[in-house]
Amino acid sequence: MSAEETAPPVTAFMLIKTTPEWLAMTPDERVKAFGTEVMPVVKARTTGVRSRFYDTEFYSTRVTDVWVWEADDHSAYQLLIDALRETPFWDRWFEVVDLLVGTENGYARTYNVAPVTTVST
């Protein structure tokens, strides 16, 4: 299988909202909690995932943060979600408002055309 024929990575936009329990912690407690109770589980139970985290609470009341995940494939993404659900992140410290999952420029791969909606100016 050539590089062009491999499956594209799965990208998930995880729209989340902080809970009162999370906000009751000090910033130092939050960093420690995430570093000891969430990230070790993700790292131990997954391979082939990467993430970026965006604060949005100063622009949105419905969603306070967006955690963008990229997984090598659907299996890696499923393992990620299973891992997160087994930590206090899921429904205790954060409410998962929505998951928007897709592949970048999927239409271009489907129709074998250039990704005309990707812009860099």
Briefly characterize the structure.
The protein is built from four helices and four strands, in the order βααββαβα.
What does the model show?
It is a single chain. The chain is α+β, with helices and mostly antiparallel strands and 121 residues long. The protein contains 4 helices and 4 strands. The protein has helices spanning 20-24, 27-45, 74-85, 106-111, and strands at residues 10-18, 49-55, 65-71, 94-102. It has a 4-stranded antiparallel sheet with strand order 2-3-1-4. The longest helix has 19 residues, at 27-45.
How do the strands and helices of this protein lay out in sequence?
Layout: E1 10-18, H1 20-24, H2 27-45, E2 49-55, E3 65-71, H3 74-85, E4 94-102, H4 106-111
Antiparallel strand pairs: 1-3, 1-4, 2-3
Helix pairs in contact: 2-3
